[in-house]
Amino acid sequence: MFAELAGPARIAAAITGCPLRIHRWHPRRQWASYAGSVVRTSASGAKGKHAGSGRSGCSGAQPRRAPIRVVLVALGACAVIAAGTVAGLAATGSGSQAHAPGATNGPSADARLSVTSLAPSARARSAQAHSPAAPSPRATPAGAASRRDPFGAAAASYLEGRAGTVLAAVYDLRSGRTWHLGQGQPQAEASIVKLDVLETLLAERGQGGGTGLSASERTLAEQMIEDSDNDAATSLWYAVGGAARIRSFNARAGLTRTAPSSCVVCPGFAWPGWGLTTTTPEDQIALLRQLVTPSSLLTGAAREYALSLMRDVTPSQRWGVSGGVPAQVSVALKNGWLPLRGAASDWQINSVGWVSGGGRDYLMAVLTTGNPSEQYGIDTIDRLAAMVWHRMG
Predict the structure, then answer these.
(1) pLDDT tens digits for the chain (393 residues)?
(2) What does the alpha-carbon distance between residue 132 and residue 261 come to, in Å, rounded to a whole number?
(3) Which of 135, 245, 262, 281 could form a disulfide with 365 if both were Cys (CB 3.0 to 4.6 A apart)?
(4) Closest by CA position to 75, among listed 50, 58, 45, 46
(5) Which of 247, 292, 253 is nearest to 274 (CA)?
(6) Nearest to 336 by CA among 183, 251, 230
(7) Which CA distances in Å does 187 have to 195, 327, 339?
(8) What residue segments make up the domains of the chain, in order of their start?
(9) What is the largest CA-CA distance in the chain?
(10) Please, are residues 181 and 168 in contact by the beta-carbon 8 Å criterion?
(11) How many helices (H) and strands (E) does the chain have?
(12) Is 210 helix (H, G, I), strand (E, B) or coil?
């Protein structure tokens, strides 16, 4: 740098007629600084900015104050030229400085001081270093926002050729997204209402870390869920306080379109009246979520107890949302089937449950009515569930 300033020193000498010398670095000497470059100047051996009063700094007959003004002008010129030289060196550098994306490549961009041009990049790097980690796959997996509809055109095409009315919903626990299929009024629950009875019972009895159920209640609950026993369900329906208490629990659980049946023994109906409770797939998803996510209504022990019963349903009743699901995948479900108008027609066939494993984690609820037979409705749900399993992968 000091060698580069020899030229400006010579120019100043030419203007003032006085030789200017560039001195080597010494910590005890005085220096004048400008634009980041340190220069010590001297005229005829005088130190500092100005010579003492009465000394011109050069031999000659010029007025006494003129040399001082000339020297000041010369020093200002030297400082400006020196600053330009330093800025040019800083901007030119080694020629290997990378440009930020989108930066202008013209001369004006190259002439910017390095401190100014690098500041935004430093802030960007700091922001990246402190950005929160990507969420876990269960919370928000890669591509969750663009996950395809698990029903898709194939499901709609399949159901067009099937009798009856099908309503369904799928909730993906990883992304929090819900998909719906079909439109229509709430349908009869049949035996899936037994899950509502169980959750109401557990909410009523649950205290502390346990289920709060008595031995007899546990026996009835196992029979009601694992075997779909109607007598056990009727006993527990009354034990929890009937339709009023179930309605109260449903309101707290977020069910908005479920109407518990007003009768257990209903005129002209051969089956227990609680099966005529009406609901929607969306409400059934809300009911299932009480079991698979932390809930203020059910203790952890109560949730696990209910799921253990749903995982242990008798083999002959393990159809429905388990359709197409590999055997090693965990499925917790409850199914329902009810002839609404005689055993030969208008079957209500339903299935609700949780499928977890094989890279999938979702809740599914399917209601079907107007089926010509029990098996017909089962086949419809099995096929639909297999499509969902495939598309959720």
Answers:
(1) 434 444 444 434 443 444 444 444 444 334 333 333 333 333 333 333 333 444 344 334 343 444 444 444 445 554 545 555 444 444 444 333 333 333 333 333 333 333 323 333 333 333 333 333 333 333 334 444 457 899 999 999 999 999 999 999 999 999 999 999 999 999 999 999 999 999 999 999 987 778 999 999 999 999 999 999 999 999 999 999 999 999 999 999 999 999 999 999 999 999 999 999 999 999 999 999 999 999 899 999 999 999 999 999 999 999 999 999 999 999 999 999 999 987 777 999 999 999 999 999 999 999 999 999 999 999 999 999 999 999 999
(2) 49
(3) 281
(4) 50
(5) 247
(6) 230
(7) 16, 30, 13
(8) 6-96+106-115, 144-391
(9) 135
(10) yes
(11) 12, 9
(12) coil
Q: Is the domain 144-391 a CATH 3.40.710.10 member? A: yes
| Token code pair at residue 346 | 């208008």
Strand partners, 20: 43
User: Which of helix, strand or coil describes residue 250?
Assistant: helix
Both tokens of residue 345?
């027609």
Is pTM beyond 0.70? Reply is: no
Cα dist from 287 to 65, 200, 388, whole Å = 98, 10, 20
- How many angstroms separate the CA atoms of 293 and 354, rounded? 12
Dihedrals phi, psi of 55, to nearest 5 degrees: -115, 130
CB atoms within 10 A of CB 65: 10
